[in-house]
Amino acid sequence: MMMKMQKQNAARGFTLVELMVSMAVGLIVMAALASLFKMGVTSTLLVTQRAETQQNMRAAVDLMVKDISMAGAGLPSGGIQLPAGANSSLSKFACDQSGTCHVTNNTYPSGNYMYGIIPGYLNGVEGSAVIAAAPAPAVNDSVTLIYTDYNFPLNEYNMYFTSATSGANVTLTANSSYTPAPPAINSAGGIQVGDLIMVAGGGLTAVGEVTNLTSSTGACPCTGTMAFANSDPLNINQDTAAKGNLKAIAGNVGTGTPVTAYRIYAVTYYLNVPTAAGQTPRLMRQVNGLTPQPVADDIINLQYAFDVYNSTTDALDSNQANPIGAGESPNNIQKINLVVMGQSIINSGNKSQSMYLATDVSARNMAFRNRYK
Predict the structure, then answer these.
(1) Element (H or E) spanning 268, and its range?
(2) What InterPro entries does the record point to (predicted)?
(3) Which of 28, 214, 221, 271 has its CB 3.0 to 4.6 Å from that of 174, i.e. a possible disulfide?
(4) Is the pLDDT of residue 349 over 50?
(5) Which of 360, 312, 313 is nearest to 334 (CA)?
(6) Percent of the chain topping pLDDT 90
(7) First and final CA of the chain: distance in angstroms?
(8) What is the pLDDT of residues 216-237, one digit of tens each?
């Protein structure tokens, strides 16, 4: 008897075509996911770059705005005449105690006159270095802002000249009418060699650069001395000049009459390109005759324009890039328009993000003319 074979039902599998279609669909989905992931990473990097750049620029702008808003504060109306006349020469700003000057065209304008604002047209990069990332045409400016420092109470000292024929040396004694007594002149935050001191007495006002100082030790009342020797780095102390120097005040008041003194700040902003490989341009802040300090990295462009009252036309000249070159007085600057360009600190494949930040600041302590009608 022949045995009847039972037919088995085999499970049906994928055909080769179905397998290939499935793999293709899977690869498409994976490619889409990879593309979405890459877009997410790129977007995150872009946001991070922009946030870092904006934060860096805002820190720079906030500091500049503070100094700009103070420009001219505490100075005599219109500014101060520095040494002038026979045996005088132009004084400097933006130079340190080593004798290094960090911007070109660094002498005071208008016959050695100290204004609250001194525009620096096209001299905003130290050593005329090239900033490759800056947009063409390469326009970079500096600005110098001068105002009185009221934080350190130098005015609470009685200052006396040691000679009626020279402004080179003074003595200081704490004024007993102030309680508590002022801190020692060389205490933290006090006077340093290279600082500028505005002295008023005998109906005159002049400026000197500190070249040496000493202070008493122990409990106050404090005493001290300050020297304003010739050949100082800023060329402020010109004892042989005909006028505009400390000697002129000493001649008026003699040695027995106290004079009033305040520290003033001459603050210059400019860009520096470090020589070390891998370092990027940065914004520098240089005060009086002291060592400049970096205040923001990756700043590649710095431009200023000025709204200036024109005393000839009795009108406002807006957005003057070079008011001194146009024959206008820095004393009539009403507003500073500021543009900063920053480059992202974080790079991805050498693709940096750059952006601008612009603002304007009223020069509230300068000569006021209402020409914004």
Answers:
(1) strand 260-272
(2) N_methyl_site
(3) 221
(4) no
(5) 360
(6) 62
(7) 123
(8) 766 666 789 999 999 999 999 9
